[in-house]
Design brief:
Elements: H1 9-15, H2 57-70, E1 74-78, H3 81-92, E2 98-102, H4 107-120, E3 123-127, H5 135-138, E4 143-149, H6 161-171, E5 174-178, H7 183-186, E6 196-200, E7 214-218, H8 220-233, H9 239-250, H10 252-271, E8 276-280, H11 290-296, E9 303-308, H12 311-321, E10 326-327, E11 337-339, H13 351-356, E12 364-367, H14 373-386
Parallel strand pairs: 2-3, 2-4, 4-5, 5-6, 10-11
Antiparallel strand pairs: 1-7, 6-7, 8-9, 9-12, 11-12
Helix pairs in contact: 2-9, 3-8, 10-14, 12-14
Bound molecules: pyridoxal-5'-phosphate (PLP).
């Protein structure tokens, strides 16, 4: 079936990109594991069917499914979220170019810029994605690209995404949005005018903590160029992993809604608990971005972070006492996870940089899974009693 443009996200998750009838009548698109296929006369190099060239049947099917979910003209899967990010940047930037980047990026993205941009001849300035009036001063004549995340990790700030698009259009910049934390269920960057959306598909898109993958979405022209970069750098996704990702995508909408609900329920409970000093969740009225997040997002996401009134020792004690969530980094799977970003996702940042954006040593990040919200609340309640 061709996904209907006006179908809702639940329907797109199940039917988007699906072939009807499928090969040999198969309802589930099979894994075409062959690396290479016979050549039709006149085939362009990048259209030869070869796994690294992203052109084999299972890969093309997955690309169509990803595109349907983000409402994009075209999509591309990559070997990881970092492969998605780096392929986008390598396609859009040349030596001498300057990037405006959010000052609260995922640690790996931050470390890529600080560790590699200079070698590639790129410069960057970190800007506060909540303060549009500061961006013009940070822009230089060489600025080409504005890089932001929908919801920042781990403070759960929601960037002024419409302002980013308006500013970039005025200034002739390409806009790139890491939509990992929102997923297309809660926000679709292309629908407000972003040029490129990308994901760590390792997280919500796959949703089962068993695949590392990335996804890039945009116009057919832009995705064609990014695909050539991926083809040359060799960061393509294997069809076996792609099969798992496509299977995960079919339940994305129901999973994400459960995670939105669980995170909101838990955030409300924690924000009223005397042993909790602060809860960062955009669905709470107390969150600094609540008003514009409510206008922008269809759901506030499955991620929240908190600080204990008792500081680092209390944070460690809470992690020890929780029974349901495992202590592990990463996020977006069906199981709840808790972690301290200062020693995991943001360990590569200097303590001063971490402190500046609120990532204190005692900050705990929670990725809510799809368990029953009442069980999560009870578990945090019993753990807090022991702290
Ligand atoms: N972007 C965000 C927001 C992430 O959280 C992550 C990983 O945690 C990445 C990108 C990188 O993704 P991957 O680990 O799939 O390479």
């Amino acid at each position: 079936m061709d996904p209907r443009d006006d179908a809702r996200i639940d329907t797109l998750a199940v039917h988007g990109g699906e072939r009807r009838p499928g090969p040999e009548g198969s309802l589930v698109f099979p894994i075409y594991q062959g690396t290479v296929y016979t050549v039709e006369p006149g085939t362009d190099y990048h259209d030869l069917k070869y796994i690294r060239l992203n052109s084999t049947p299972s890969q093309v099917y997955l690309h169509d499914k990803l595109a349907a979910l983000e409402g994009a003209e075209a999509g591309l899967a990559t070997a990881s979220g970092m492969a998605a990010l780096t392929s986008v940047l390598h396609t859009l930037l040349r030596p001498g170019d300057h990037i405006l980047a959010s000052d609260c990026l995922y640690g790996g993205t931050h470390d890529f810029l600080t560790g590699h941009a200079a070698d590639l001849g790129w410069t960057y300035t970190f800007v506060d994605p909540q303060s549009p009036d500061t961006w013009a001063a940070a822009k230089t004549p060489s600025t080409r690209l504005f890089l932001v995340e929908t919801i920042t990790n781990p403070m759960m700030r929601v960037a002024r995404l419409r302002d980013v698009v308006a500013f970039a259009r005025r200034e002739g910049l390409t806009t790139v949005c890491d939509n990992t934390f929102a997923s297309p269920v809660n926000f679709r960057p292309l629908s407000v005018g972003f040029d490129v959306a990308f994901h760590s598909a390792t997280k919500y898109l796959n949703g089962h903590s068993d695949v590392v993958a990335g996804a890039v979405l945009g116009s057919a022209e832009l995705i064609g160029r990014i695909r050539r970069t991926v083809n040359h750098y060799g960061g393509s996704l294997d069809p076996h992993a792609g099969f798992l990702l496509a299977r995960g995508l079919k339940t994305l909408a129901v999973r994400m809604r459960a995670q939105n609900h669980n995170a909101l329920t838990l955030a409300q409970f924690l924000s009223e608990h005397p042993k909790i000093a602060a809860v960062n969740y955009p669905g709470l009225a107390s969150h600094p971005d609540h008003a514009h997040a409510s206008a922008l997002l269809s759901g506030f996401g499955g991620m929240l972070s908190l600080r204990m009134a008792g500081g680092l020792d209390a944070a460690k004690a809470l992690l020890d006492a929780l029974r349901i969530p495992a202590v592990a980094p990463s996020l977006g799977g069906v199981e709840s996870l808790v972690t301290r970003p200062a020693i995991t996702s943001h360990a590569g940042m200097s303590p001063a940089d971490r402190e500046r954006i609120g990532i204190t040593d005692d900050l705990i990040r929670v990725s809510t899974g799809i368990e029953d919200a009442a069980d999560l609340v009870e578990d945090f309640g019993q753990a807090l009693d022991k702290v």
